[in-house]
Amino acid sequence: MTDVFTVLANDHTEVKQMLTELEAGSAGASSASVHGEDALRLRKNMVEQLIIEESKHEAVEEEYFWPAVRELVTDGDRLADHAIEQEQAAKKVLNDLIGLDAGEAKFEELLANFITDGRAHIAFEENEVWPALRRVITDERAEKLGEKLEQGKKLAPTRPHPNTPPKPGILKAAGPAVAAADKVRDKITGRGQD
Ligand SMILES: [Fe+2]
Ligand SMILES: [Fe+2]
């Protein structure tokens, strides 16, 4: 089963797990002597992985999921507008996190914000948007949308790009080039490799 809800739920489960682990590590992260350099490096790597997963996930939601919500759900525009606002705010935070090191006060502050807001965003989608969409989407459409999301993720950017307008069509038009450029940068910097 690769319907839209399964694909999105798998992503959410992965992200929620990362948030729990990052939250658990936050107590000692500001004191390198407690956690050590290795722990801080791992923490930074986990945040990089979180940013990669989040960037791909939100990019395909913007490209395929929100247009379907707008089209099919009566209150779809309001739901999509609210969620996209949350996503844009999250991208800014994640983009700021890229330049910081784990254990830095600013890093920990931004991450703590992201953990709270990220959970609120996931809860909004799961509790308000998904039930509304489930009521109106056909099994066939749900399956097709799930496939589009999975395919789209392969070409999706791995960085947040907070200044790119969150409009469908962007990923189709510029996404593959942006994603390719992101991946080149990832390779050069070793980002997301370990
Ligand atoms: Fe989202
Ligand atoms: Fe989501």
Automatic annotation (TrEMBL):
Protein name: Hemerythrin-like domain-containing protein
InterPro entries attached to this UniProt entry: Hemerythrin-like
Highest taxon in the source lineage: Bacteria
UniProt biased composition (Pro residues): 159-168
Coiled coil: none
Biased composition (Basic and acidic residues): 182-194
Annotated spans, Disordered: 148-194
Residue ranges occupied by any Hemerythrin-like domain in the UniProt entry: 6-133
PANTHER family with a match to the protein in the record: HHE DOMAIN PROTEIN (AFU_ORTHOLOGUE AFUA_4G00730) (PTHR35585)
